[in-house]
Amino acid sequence: MSEKNLEKIISLCKRRGFVYPSSEIYGGFAAVYDYGPYGVELKNNIQGVWWKNMVQDRENIVGLDSAIFMSPKVWEASGHVSGFSDPLSECKKCHTRSRVDHLLEEIDVFADENMTEDEINKIFKKNKDKIKCPSCGSKDFTDAKSFNLLVKSNLGNFTGKWDEEPTYLRGETCQGIYVNFKNVMDSSRVKVPFGIAQVGKAFRNEITARQFIFRTREFEQMEMQYFVEEKDATKEYKRWKKERWEFYVNDLGITEKKLRWHEHENLVFYAKEAWDIEYEFPFGFKEVEGIHNRSDYDLTQHTKHSGCELNYNDPKTNKKFTPWVVETSAGLTRTLFVVLCDAYTEEKVGDDERVVLKLKKELAPVKIAVFPLLKNKPELVKIAKKIFDNLKTKWVCEFDDNGNVGKRYRRQDEIGTPYCVTVDFETIEKDDSVTVRDRDTMKQERVKIKDLEKWFEKKFV
Ligand code: GAP
User: Fold this and answer.
1) Torsion of CA 298, 300, 301, 304, to 10 degrees
2) Does this model's pTM top 0.70?
């Protein structure tokens, strides 16, 4: 898929109400997006499929919804206050700020995530002649400086000097899971191995935020932390890698050959092993989900900093230990982008062309559209409304009587609606049947009104 298609997807998202730029009437707000009527349905559906797979279909994974704000001590203990940063440089000509590791990547030089400012500056200077500013093409940059990604706030601080003692908007959802480890253990019947899953907002002061909703400053994550004995960590890690790959292929219907694995050689401060699942976006293969073996780092850190022992007493062996964590960490908003890119299709239809989102039925924002053939025939409208009222009690439906049927099909194709029902003259004159048109094959079938619900039940199993 080309960069040109990226422009088309962005345009479709705005035009059809999937994704809007934030605060657009005020000129926009960089790297933040809003989700429109179809976008929120699609996002909820992806989240629902993930929640079912990770929580509801499993016996030993429970859910959590922790607050976005936490004690600032959480972020000191986790290492984010001191170590969660990216190297930033400014173009001296146009003042565009860029991530130095990304500038280096463009010329196939890869920086280690754990490098100090001095180390990264050495490599940056060595390659300066080859690196160009992405905005103006200049080769004149300031030295790289470490820039902390945590977003600060003044919540609960009324001194006017909040910047010295900030609270933070969470930079990842999993910290809420670690600090509730004991609460979940004490209040439910979980036993190691078990997992805690959560979906929610995360915030990062990303230096460069291009590529639409790929990297934004406010985004959503779907994370699961699986607590295991140290001896089982490698085995469980392998299992979760396999399970998460299968989720994209089977549950979301993503084209398997557009996915690949990427191993992290330079690990972030907490990880023992880390692999990413990458998707081939219009701008190349990029990370969608990280699967990390985080060892006992997080629970140990929070035990040290809080004074509260976050360990597990095995009732069988009476052995006390700090569990290790296998983490699966996916971006919900980034996954939505993957789903849109993968579903976007342009097809020739006779001399015409149609754009169709070939979404998996479970993910489609609208499942069934119902039309009367003509808007100005009350007898057709009445029957179509009745069918719509009945079907919408079971599925998300849309009633449309604008324009001609061909245009309505195109509109529904563009938002990925799997089926369109049309009430026409045959319905009233002949046999009480309607046409049901399939989004992918465009084939039409006549179905009796009395059988419609059963017909759809079979299609949406
Ligand atoms: N708890 C581990 C963690 O947060 P990460 O690799 O920093 O790991 C996990 O993030 C996932 O969250 C990424 O694979 C990506 O899908 C999503 N993500 C991270 N930063 C993002 C951003 N700025 N915008 C959108 N999604 C982001």
Assistant:
1) 160
2) yes
